[in-house]
Each structure stands twice: as C-alpha cells, then as structure tokens.
C-alpha cells in the first residue's frame, strides 16, 4: 500500500509538470489577473494546482497568456502574467445558423464540436416546423468556452439569442459573403463544396428535423441564399451543421 501511494504521488507530480492547464478570462488587463470563482474552484480544488504552478490563459479574442499562480485561492485565484502572444484572426468567417433540436443534448454536442472545428458565430433560428421555440444560451456559452480551452483554440465563437427565420434573412440581407441553405427538396441544388468560393465568408442555414417549408426556401433564395446539398443521404440537423462546417473549413485549410 505504501508503494502504491508513492507511485500515485509520483504520477501526479509528473502529470502536473507536463500538463499546462488553460483557463478563460474575458479581459486581461495589466500583469496580474484573477480567475472567476468557478474557474478558481476548478483550478484549486479539482486540478489541485498550487502556488508557483504554470498555467495558460486565453481571452477568447486571439490572445494567449502564460502565467504563474501567485495565490491559489479557490474563490479568486490570482495569476501573474509571464508571457503573451497574439494569434492572427482567421482570414474568413463561418457563421452557422441552426433550428435548435428538440433534444437539447444534441444541440450542446453540436456547439462543442463546432467550437473544436472553429467557427465565428452560432445563430439559433426558429423556423415553421421547429420543435424548440425557447432556448437559453447561457449553458451553450459555457460549453463553447470549455471546448475552446480543451481544443487549444484562442477565439471564442459568439452564441446569439434565438431569432426568427424572417429576422435572420433581414439581418443578413447585405451580408458580405456567401449564403447557403441546404435542404431536402428535389429541386436543383449544387454540392456546397463546389458552390463555395474559397476564402469568402460563409453563412450556412440549417433547418429543423422537418426541414424548411417550400415558402421558407423560396424566401431565403430571394434573400441571396444558394440552395445546396451536403450529402446524398438525409442528415440529422446537428450532423448537417457539422458536415457543412468541416467541408468549408477543409477547403480553406
């Protein structure tokens, strides 16, 4: 038993030496900063980090900071900045607009995976056949933050509040980029990878499980949306959104 305890301690110490944990602070000013109470509890009580341990911080705006813990307080962990680097912003932006799924777990999964892949903004949209008419975005923001930290990204996507289909079309009427609307109707559609022009901003509008109505598709096309297909098979809402994001990211990378 004595040997096991010492082996466990050895593994833990080496784990701390090799893994540098990353935390989120929305605004870093000066050479010192403090983690939120939630991040502080995770840092001190869960990860068991201590004074003089190295950590990383990102503000979700492209900045990455190296820091050292000055005061390991679970209510407000104080950090000292030791280095800073700025990552260039992506040369193009990807906006994903989605009719939220009835099962919130599937939507949360989508936010996590989209953040790992990398995108600029998520817009939940209420459509005619939507099964979810109310959406609280606080938890979605938390999921995006955790996914950003875990995946090593330094740009946090913006999660907007639920809007109507019409408002989305009106708000992005003069959008400087390409707009796509994948749907399942048997009308002429291009494959999104052939319709997209590499390097341009893109807005992809994904419908609910019951798909868009013909009226919505027609209205979207009148507002400059290009009808496209993602796959020869019918995809679930969250699969379609992730497939579109990966396809466009792959073309640009």
Global Rg: 22 Å
Major sheet attributes? 8 strands, parallel
Low-confidence segments, given as residue ranges, are none
Number of helices: 8
How far do the termini sit from each other?
52 Å
Would you report the number of β strands? 13
Note the run of SSEs as H and E.
Answer: HEEHEEEEHEHEEHEEHEHEH
Bulk shape: elongated
What is the beta-strand fraction? 15-25%
Report helical residue fraction: 25-40%
Mean pLDDT over all positions: 91
The secondary structure category is alpha/beta
Describe the model:
The chain has 253 residues and is an alpha/beta fold. The chain contains 8 helices and 13 strands. Strands 6, 7, 8, 9, 10, 11, 12 and 13 form an 8-stranded parallel β-sheet that branches. The chain has a 5-stranded mixed β-sheet with strand order 1-3-4-5-2. The model has no long low-confidence stretch (mean pLDDT 91).
Please give a handful of descriptors for the protein shown:
253 residues; alpha/beta; eight-stranded parallel beta sheet; five-stranded mixed beta sheet; 13 strands; elongated
Give a quick precis of the structure.
The protein is α/β, with parallel strands linked by helices and 253 residues long. The chain has eight helices and 13 strands.
Write the layout of secondary structure elements.
Layout: H1 2-18, E1 22-24, E2 32-34, H2 37-46, E3 54-58, E4 63-71, E5 78-86, E6 94-98, H3 104-117, E7 121-126, H4 138-151, E8 158-159, E9 163-164, H5 165-171, E10 178-182, E11 190-191, H6 192-195, E12 202-206, H7 214-222, E13 225-229, H8 237-252
Parallel strand pairs: 1-3, 6-7, 6-12, 7-8, 7-9, 10-12, 10-13, 11-13
Antiparallel strand pairs: 2-5, 3-4, 4-5
